Known about the structure:
single chain; 18% helix; 6-stranded mixed beta sheet; alpha+beta; 5 helices; 35% strand
Amino acid sequence: FLTHCQSHFLNVGTSSTSQNIKIVSYNVEGPDISIFNAFERYSSFRDDYLQGDEDIICIQEAKQTGILESVFSDYPYTYITKYSTTHNDWDFSCFCHRATDQYMVILSKYPFLSTHNQLIQKDSHGDGWQRKVQYVRVDIGNDLDPIHVYNFHNSNVPEGASTDQAESGLLKFKMYVWMTQFKILNQDLTNDVFMVGDFNLNSYSTVMNILGTNLIKHHSGVDYIVSNLNHDDNKGYYDTSNAPNIISDHPAIWASYVVD
Length: 260
């Protein structure tokens, strides 16, 4: 992988200006949602929660991505990655074993210089979901070096179960980040890197210990935005899990950064 893609991940030049970048992480699904129509749910997120200044939105568990793209038509740059179940139950509607598909999506107001995705692991429990990571290198203009955004949906932890598989998944995710940045695991990141997603680990200290205690983290429950840049407390969340119109069981979290 590194040999094949090396030319796509190199830095380009140096910068003398700065740019404000706001990044969102949002898992759009959940068992207790009250709005089931995809267009209504995506439109509610767009119209009732977002402020209009979000530059990059990283989404996990999306469905009907065509509708998602139409609702977010002013985000001209979209990267979509499918991930599926691998332990597929018998579906009596077709008398066959049918996989269930979901999608990870990165929506951006800035163009992608390169994209990549990779399978991190498969769940050993439940439906055996594939767990993938998306990577985009983004040109934010103003003669600035590109930023590097990673969107990851980690293995979930069944109630009462060990967190070992989720911790292993997060470590593999970190290794992927470091490999695409051509770093060893104990070396500081020199590019502007954002690790985003549903990490499925409630323990803040566990996530810190795996990804690196020197990094700056913003989180709500299992949802994280992690970077080597400081957000200067310009962060928050959109409570999309609040009744009566529950459009996810996750809040959407956001953080803003000055990139220079």
